[in-house]
Amino acid sequence: MTGSVLELAAANAVFVATHFAMSHPLRAPMVARLGPTGFQLAYTLVSAAALAWVYFAFIAAPPGDLPGSGDWGWALATALTAPAMILFAGSMAGNPALPTPKAEVQAMAMPQGVLRITRHPMMWGIALWAASHIVLWTSWRTTITAASMALLALLGAHLQDRKKRALMGEAWATWESRTSYWPQIGGFAHAGAVPWILGLALFAGLSWLHAPLAGIQAGIWRWLPIG
Asked: Which residues, other chains included, contact 85 with Cβ-Cβ below 8 Å and sequence gap of 6+?
């Protein structure tokens, strides 16, 4: 690995570590010392600085220093991205994992939409999107950054369960008993029309934008290049 790739790995490690630290063990002492507003400001500034480091290290690293996985990799990446977008599109509706004053009421209700697939649809959407880039195996910079995002999403979801359990007690215990951390494939059949329509629209639109933004045809457009 080159020095720029090692710097990118360090930047991603700092981004992930600071996010976990401020979200969990350091959150309470930081809030006590800085107050809620001060904590949010510090959290935002540290996260933005770490993410900026990731960005600049990413663009400095070589763009194509791995052999790639060929057409099978693109097919698998496409197959992973479509459900990722469906999960992401439906993740805002009735989700007690999000910061909302209605969280306890939502947690006591029966899961609907993509929440019938997993109680962490946004996190799994990010993780599947990250996995779609890992399987392509085109560069160390993409693989390292995508793996970091997947770790942040999935370990973050696990830690969020523990935090919500402490904060919401019986309401979250009820929600956990009715939902799954791991995606249930059969749940896609019951996710509803809106997540499917919005998710597939996101999938088609974002994969089309991949060519003008990244210079590479992606998704269905790799085999049906239009525009």
From this structure: 125, 129, 199, 200, 202, 203, 206
* Calpha distance 156→43 (Å, rounded): 16
**Same domain, residue pair 82 and 40:** no
Return the amino acid letter for 207: S
Domain shared by 55 and 155, yes or no: no
Query: Which pLDDT score is estimated for 195?
Result: 96
Q: Under a CB-based contact definition with an 8 Å cutoff, are residues 104 and 168 in contact?
A: yes
Specify if 227 maps to a domain.
no
Question: What average pLDDT score do residues 65-74 get?
Answer: 93
Of the three residues 17, 45, 61, the one that is the final residue of a domain is 61
Last residue of a domain, one of 35, 61, 87: 61
Residue-level pLDDT at 24: 86
Name the average pLDDT for the chain: 93
Q: State mean pLDDT over 19-37.
A: 92
- Cα distance between residue 105 and residue 92, in whole Å: 15
Segments forming the whole domain that contains residue 54: 1-61
Give the up-direction half-sphere exposure of residue 24: CA atoms within 13 A in the CB hemisphere.
Answer: 18
